[in-house]
Amino acid sequence: MAQKGTSKTLEKLKNSVNEGKYYEAHQMYRTVARRYNKQEKYINSIKLLHDGAVSLMEHKQSGSGSDLANYMMDTYLLANLPVDENALDRVIDILELYPSTEVGRRSFLSKTFSWTQKNGEYSEGDPELHDYVGTMFYQEGQFSLAEEHLLVGTDHSAELLGELSYAWSKKDANNGSGIYLARVVLQYLAMKSVRHATLTFNNFIKAAKLSSKSQAGYNYSPAGETVQISIYDDSWLNFTQLMLLTVQRDGAALFKQLKSTYGPMYNQQKGFDELIDDIGAAFYNIQKPKKQGNMMQDLMNSLFAGGSPSGNAPRQVTGSPSLGLD
After folding, report:
1. pLDDT tens readout for residues 274-310
2. Is residue 4 located within the same domain as residue 68?
3. Under 8 Å CB-to-CB from 304, ≥6 apart: which residues?
4. Cβ proximity of 81 and 46 under 8 Å
5. What DSSP letter does each residue of 256-302 carry, written as one string?
6. Does the N terminus or the C terminus of the chain have fewer Cβ atoms within 10 A?
7. Keyword Transport: yes or no (predicted)?
8. Within this chain, do residues 120 and 186 fall inside the same structural domain, yes or no?
């Protein structure tokens, strides 16, 4: 009987939307959903809100649709709904209809990932959802946001990051393209994800249609096995390739040699030194250097900047490398 009642309500509200009674329908969707939530009939509420959000967005009522979409995610969280295919499909249904300019999309995404982190098995949120959202931002040309999601996505995400890195580099006349590849590959390696770093590297080379100017031998294993690797005009590409090969063997000495050789280059870009230190710690248990704080200088900075001199804010790698990494 309850299911029949829900179906009748859905039909009635859908008719209101089809008749152009958008405000009335919007308010009724919220009222009935609120009633269901008070009765802890969360599945009925979610079905209703999903239907309302989709119907209103299909009728170009994105503000009202967004409000119901956000209410649906509030209900997901309230119900502690498990992260499964059906629950994710509802999210995708709505995201496919969300205009990129609708301000409520940001809140919807925030609530969605909070839900997948709280009720799913991945601390960063569901990888498939990150892949979808990252791909969406990439297609919209929002490369920084796309990178943030794709880095914690799937194999497809890693491949797409290769294309993204090359596309992003084409918008920067001040730096070579290799630095955009390096920022992604090094982040993957800092997370100890060699597979994804390799997928990104290979797809970047493919997207850029690069050919090497020469080849050189590289001792890939302690037993002395040598492989031929490409040498590129871009030092960042060479550095990234060598770092990717080095971490796949017992190469602490080679790692230190790479740091020494390429340090003058990557130390000019804020944040790269920390990524390299993270990689050394992850693969070779090399202790990260302690920050050498200057108490008087920190105090002066605090006085003039009005902030805390603690320096303990989490580092995020975002934005164009030409501007530095935060």
Report:
1. 999 999 999 999 998 876 555 445 544 544 443 332 3
2. yes
3. none
4. yes
5. HHHHHHHHHHHTTSTTHHHHHHHHHHHHH-PPPPPP---HHHHHHHH
6. N
7. yes
8. no
Among the candidates 125, 144, 164, a domain finishes at 125
1 and 94 both lie in a single domain: yes
160 within a domain of the structure (yes/no): no
Q: Which domain holds residue 200?
A: 178-326
Q: Domain check: are 186 and 306 in the same one?
A: yes
Q: In total, how many domains does the chain have?
A: 2
Instruction: Compute how many other C-beta atoms are within 10 angstroms of the C-beta atom of residue 224.
Output: 7
Q: Which of residues 316 and 137 earns the better pLDDT score?
A: 137
In a domain, 171, yes or no: no
**61 in the same domain as 197:** no
Domain end residue (candidates: 91, 106, 125): 125
pLDDT of residue 3: 58
176 with 236: CB under 8 angstroms?
yes
Q: Is residue 31 part of a domain?
A: yes
pLDDT in tens, 99-154: 999 999 999 999 999 999 999 999 999 999 999 999 999 999 999 999 999 999 99
Q: 10 Å Cβ neighbour count for 161? A: 33
CB atoms within 10 A of CB 160: 24
Please report the pLDDT score of residue 229 as a whole number.
82
Residues 68 and 188 in one domain: no
Q: Please indicate, yes or no, if residue 164 is contained in any of the structural domains.
A: no
Q: What is the pLDDT of residue 204?
A: 96
How buried is 252 (Cβ within 10 angstroms: 0-12 exposed, 13-18 middle, 19+ buried)? middle
Q: Which residues of 166-193 are buried (b: 16+ CB within 10 A; e: fewer)?
A: bbbbeeeeeebbbbbbbbbbbbbbbbeb
CA distance 255 to 162: 24
Classify residue 275 by burial, with Cβ atoms within 10 Å: 0-12, 13-18, 19+: buried
Name 267's Cβ contacts closer than 8 Å, sequence gap at least 6.
273
Q: Give the bridge partners for 217, in sequence order.
A: 228
Q: pLDDT value at position 312?
A: 32
Contact 187, 326 (CB under 8 A): no
